[in-house]
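new request in #modeling-help
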Amino acid sequence: MNSKEIQGSKCRERNGGTPLELEWINAFHVNRSAIERRVATLGTRRSVKKQWQAAWLLRAISCMDLTTLAGDDTPGNVLRLCAKGKQPVRQDILAEMEGLNLPVSVAAICVYHNLVKTAVDCLQGTAIPVAAVSTGFPAGQISFEHKLEQIRASVEAGASEIDIVISRSHVLLANWRKLYEEVLAYREACGPVHLKTILATGELATLTNVAKASLVCMMAGADFIKTSTGKESVNAILPVGLVMVRAIRDYYEKTGFHVGFKPAGGIGRAKQALEWFILMKEELGSEWLDASLFRFGASGLLGDIERQLEHHVTGRYSALYRHPMG
Amino acid sequence: MNIQKIYETMEYGPAPESRTVADEWLQLRKHQFDLFIAGTWQTPKIRKYLESINPANKEFLAKIAVADKSDVNKAVSAARKALPGWLAIGSHGRARYLYAIARQLQKHARLFAVLETLDNGKPIRESRDIDIPLAIRHFYHHAGWAHLLETEFPDHQPIGVVGQIIPWNFPLLMLAWKIAPALAAGNTIVLKPAELTSLTALAFAELCENIQLPPGVLNIVTGGGKTGEWIAKHPDIQKIAFTGSTEVGRILRQVTAGTGKKLSLELGGKSPFLVFEGADLDGAVEGIVDAIWFNQGQVCCAGSRLLLQESIAEKMIAKIKKRMKKLRIGNPLDKCIDMGAIVAPTQLRKIKLLLQTGKKEGCVPWQPSVACPKEGYFFSPTLFTDVSPSSTIAQEEIFGPVLVSMTFRTPAEAIALANNTRYGLAASIWSENINLALDVAPKIKAGSIWINCTNLFDAASGFGGYRESGFGREGGKEGMWEYLKPKWEAEFANKEPYRSASKAKKQNKNSALLLPIDRTAKMYIGGKQSRPDSGYTTPVHSLSGKILGAVGKGSRKDIRNAVEAAHAASSWATTSAHARAQILYYIAENFEIRSNEFAAKISQMTGISSKAAQQEVDLSIQRIYTYAAFADKYEGSVHHTPFRNVTLAMPEPIGVLGVICPSASPLLGFLSTVLPPIAIGNCVVAVPSEFFPLAATDFYQILDTSDLPGGVLNIVTGNQDTLVEVLANHDDVDGIWYFGSKAGSKMVEYASAENMKRTWVNYGKHRDWFNKLHGEGEAFLRHATQIKNIWIPYGE
């Protein structure tokens, strides 16, 4: 069994996967209305204010996969992003926070394969890993062989985390074995490198499909399950998150393996970050509020968090331009 | 706590809602409140005040006036005086006031929420997001009913002055449930809030002052049980609406018995929460949180009896315990807690006592080790396992955050366990199998059924109970009927036509018990003719004193047998409406062949002209047609509740109904009163006209030839007032219709309090059965049914 210490973790055993268990998958039921009612009150049953809010937002930064995934990415903007990742919050703001004794940095920098090397070089000497999106991201409509090659190439280039996209068609056609085998192959191609499986839930049609796909990916050995590429019309939303998180809990209860969760796309406000944390804390516990088990895939979120942190120390509402851009 | 530490532990911190505005509001009123009568604030006659206490920290909040008898009298006369003016304003005018109330509540929503939480101890999240918004919605919705009153409820009028007594668990929401429909229907009100929680009602009174609601339309008299008693007994109050314990509800039924006061009762419950294998188990766990830990379990419809299918029971219990560890108990004003304080030490003691009883009986309690404040009245969430239906805690309403769990093997067993209770307020059914869920829902005896959800409420949907959970509905069109009466009721006669005449004749002949010269009609029980258990018969005389025949002298035993037979025929309720209609038409068909014979018999018995007798027979045939026609047309509705769901309001038969038929119009009166319940699926035990019973007993031959299943209609002849007493005191009779004397009406209502039968009595006022308005129509079907609301959320 592979075991790897992930950044920030307490040396947990890596998900070793299980055989594909269709009976288990089919016994997992999701009621959409019940899911929606639960998420509708998550943010109203819990409230995080004042220094609690500041601390939670700092934690959110530490769980952030700071991301750029655009056609016009160049080494220039990726370098800027890496620099921001190393020093995500203005030092004067952090200095105002009493008792704070933290190296504040993001969890990872997430880029396309072509920019992996640029990012890895830039992050030399830091603990910040580089994550590469892979397997024909975002649509995944390339040949299976190319997908495996892409993973290997990114690992070769120094990526320590690979965010793959699953073949949505396997889910829509209920081809669970094919999905299982696909992810199994990706995991093998990753070797010791961390595997995040993007479900692209916006294209899976139902919450039941999301639940089943989550379980299959975990059975095949995913280290993380991730909601979206950020390119679907609907990306990370709480109802989908709740379904995935409950699948993680179910998997943990049956196997003892901790699998991480990464909502990505559409999370741009500090308040949303708190809601996702509340979801994780309530459904999985505080253990899952850690970069080893939780990531935000985001690009705009950091800016809003910086503004909130400045507001916390000054009492004045902040403007985005006061914070260095990534 | 510093940021570094929080960063490491990721704990929640305190997040208190500000109480500044509420405190200022109390201070401005010097922490003392008088009675709101005739639009002014009046000092209570005896100058007595009780203290309102915050149960979360025992702080004094305010002094609340105690209304005594003379204060209640003043309030009632103010309401009486305001009635004509309030009527004259018209439905649109009243709609404007209700709309203004809704708007004002919305504008001051946070003040009401904070006051409610201070006074009651419920979490601010609930008062802010549930209680107050639902109350506002209730007034908006009923502003609509006010406006539509004449078109939607033709030939109806307000009842008059209504007395309303509300509980402490949802102080403002229950006030809204009471006041909105009463005002919308054009009544004026004397309302008593619960003595533990009067503050929001008093703030509401101020709000009504501000919108210049005409003085006397709404009077708020605070105080304890005694104040409530004066309201209940006041002769000028025409209706009592009560929400509270079954114990008090029963007393109210007794003290109002025979007074003609309309009564609606929303009482206790021990509602089942069924989880089948194949349910979304995590969803069900959250449902349980909303079912029993909402408002600290102080909810009449709390899902307090958890029924788990054996195959998933162990897994569910583990999940529930895990979830319970996440519950946060604390300062109710904290926006980050799940459970606040129990309303008062008396209630806390009651909960603790039942916890002890549960333990003593071998049930196993479990509580999470979560922090529970010490200074106020708090109680940890509790889960009982190893509970059986015979455990006290499985039967008694605890009204606290205590869940009892049991298991079942099959859907049939789940239904049997669910119905193994005297209550019938609500039920929750969890299954992803729509066939199963929709099969179980109609079989559970409860007014609200929530499929894959729980504790959902809305102004458009009627809420209320079956069995000892009370009667009447609040919300929706079904709720509006509770505050209206037909205009033609005023035409009802004090004397029943030609009853006394026949009595006189009969007495003349009473001395000699002659052998029947015609034939002895038997009882008709379970589709069979049966001799009276007593072995006695009573002669039936013609007007001229001639003996026309004899009927059996029914006794307790005959009633007992008839009720058993009626229960045995209960599948009538699920017989298709089309089939029921066909049988009724067939009855008409078979009856018409013998119509001349019936007319002659009626004429002989009652002395009415043969023309009039023929008219009674003709009308009887029409009446059969009326209910044959209605059988498949008296339908429910789909309420527009603001969720993605269908809320089905289904009229369900009440069950076994005792019908004491009118004495006059022996055939038409008999058919007018037994057919509506039957058409809609009830089984009936009828006691026909005591003086002219032969019309009914001849009729059973027609029933026999018309395929009416045995037991659906049972006929027991004899002394009506003796027999109705047996029916009224029979706990397996679900309802009674009584068309007899004033004294008999009182007896029926009084005795029915025991098992909370639905009663419909005439208070000695007599309908003219020849008059269609009096003698038939939807009102009869409404009284033969109760509305069950089934909430079915959907979406994949």
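bot summary: Chain B touches chain A through 39 residues (CB under 8 Å).
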